[in-house]
Design goal:
The chain has 445 residues and is of the alpha+beta class. It folds into 3 domains: 58 residues, no CATH class; 128 residues, no CATH class; 195 residues, Orthogonal Bundle (hpI Integrase, Chain A). A 4-stranded antiparallel sheet has the order 1-2-3-4, covered by helices on one side. Strands 5-6 form a two-stranded antiparallel ribbon. Strands 7-8 form a two-stranded antiparallel ribbon. Helix 2 crosses helix 6. The longest helix is centred in the N-terminal third of the chain and has 20 residues. The radius of gyration is 27 Å and the shape is elongated. The termini are far apart.
Length: 445
């Protein structure tokens, strides 16, 4: 290999570069992992099969961790740990954490975003050269110090949160909230503890700081919408001959479950998900195979309105040929396929209805507003906490499923009022099916 071009990335004995001829031309567009083989006394290489630099770096990280002679920090003679936070780079710790834990989680994208913010701080410090205290050479020992976290907080406070389009152009920018900064700090703490908990350990230090408590950094949401606004939203989503089916289903499921937006778009009638089946009195917001976390997803009674929508989607699902059912059955869908969110349709709706479009008017406003409406209509505290997933079920409730009667009564009254203000807006439009037998025939949304 020609070593005229410096490596793109390096860990231990491995480095990342292209395979170049003597004249500098590349034999392949793919990146290669290179290393010196002391047994044969020559350089060896292995193609990553990737032309994208980030993917190629990930391939090198995986190879490094799989090499028992490189990754573990222990003495081969006595087996004692040689883990030293002073020599273990923070960037390496982040990479290892993502491979071994972060990338395997349902919240992988969120984890990656929070850690990318930490790496952004290291990049900014690196760009300051001698004026920067931290940079790419920052070790886990340095990252565990209060000096590091104070510097990170000061830098993060000045960095806006940005959204970019496919061309990389900034389309939306807003001030970063203190809560967003603390979320990145909490993720950084997880990285550093992961390094210390590895077997064998890769670091002998743990962070001496904690993220600031939520009550100190989270701004209380003050915006709530009433039944009148909900009726306007339903009337808009139910307009005939419009491509608003996903928004319509999202509104229905949100009103019937008071669930978080992420849980709403995750509702499916597919049997392998084990969330609902025809005649089931409950819907499980936590599908088969998903581990419960702090954002607990509850097992809820199925309101009649939601039951009708679920039955209609189930009929659509069962009308498909068996080999066509994979990836189908989602209640909130776009032409049968799942959606990550309804943000684009939501923004359009707010604009069309001349409603505010600020941060507090994101889809999450439904959960806050419905919780407020239900509470003010007499829902008992114990029922509301369980219904919203703010209280994990006790051992007794493993056997006795909660029915949350006071919440159900309040929601039924809200649904009834919406029906009066926007007649028919909560119905799902069905074609080619007899309403008296909702589980037969072909359905279209």
């Amino acid at each position: 290999m020609s070593r005229r071009t410096p490596p793109v990335y390096q860990r231990g004995k491995y480095w990342l570069a292209h395979d170049e001829r003597a004249d500098g031309s590349r034999r392949s567009p793919n990146f290669y992992v290179w290393w010196y083989d002391s047994a044969t006394r020559r350089e060896r290489s292995s193609s990553t099969g990737k032309v994208d630099e980030a993917s190629a770096i990930l391939a090198l990280d995986r190879l490094y961790l799989a090499d028992k002679g490189e990754a573990p920090a222990f003495c081969h003679a006595c087996g004692q740990s040689l883990a030293q936070a002073q020599t273990y780079l923070l960037t390496d710790a982040i990479a290892d954490y993502k491979i071994e834990w972060g990338d395997t989680r349902v919240s992988a994208d969120t984890i990656a975003g929070r850690l990318a913010h930490v790496v952004g701080f290291l990049d900014a410090e690196q760009a300051l050269a001698t004026e920067g205290r931290f940079g790419h050479a920052t070790s886990c020992a340095a990252a565990c110090s209060s000096v590091f976290v104070h510097a990170f907080r000061a830098w993060s406070r000045l960095q806006p949160v940005e959204w970019r389009n496919g061309k990389g152009e900034v389309t939306v920018s807003r001030i970063r909230s203190p809560a967003a900064t603390e979320a990145s700090i909490a993720q950084l703490i997880a990285v550093l503890n992961h390094a210390a908990n590895a077997e064998p350990p890769r670091s002998d230090k743990r962070p001496i700081y904690k993220p600031l408590p939520a009550r100190q950094v989270q701004r209380q949401r003050r915006t709530r919408i009433g039944v009148e606004e909900l009726a306007k939203m339903f009337a808009y989503a139910a307009e005939p001959d419009r491509q608003r089916g996903s928004l319509h289903a999202f509104l229905v499921a949100s009103v019937c479950t008071i669930a978080r937006p992420g849980a709403v778009v995750d509702i499916s009638v597919a049997p392998d998900r084990q969330q609902w089946w025809p005649g089931a009195p409950t819907v499980d917001l936590n599908p088969q195979g998903r581990t419960q976390n702090k954002k607990h997803r509850a097992l809820l009674p199925v309101l009649p309105l939601l039951d009708r929508w679920l039955r209609a989607e189930y009929a659509t699902y069962m009308a498909l040929k068996p080999d066509e059912r994979a990836g189908r059955g989602w209640l909130v869908n776009y032409h049968g396929r799942p959606v990550q969110d309804v943000d684009r349709a939501w923004d359009t709706m707010l604009t069309k209805l001349d409603m505010p479009t600020g941060r507090e008017w994101r889809p999450y406003v439904l959960r806050h507003s419905l919780a407020t409406l239900v509470r003010n209509r007499g829902a008992e505290k114990w029922d509301l906490e369980g219904f919203m997933g703010h209280r994990a079920g006790s051992q007794t409730e493993v056997y006795a499923i909660g029915e949350f009667p006071s919440v159900v009564r309040a929601l039924e009254s809200i649904i009834s009022e919406i029906e009066k203000l926007a007649p028919g807006a909560m119905h799902r439009n069905l074609t080619g099916v007899d309403k008296s037998s909702p589980l037969t025939g072909n359905l279209q949304m």
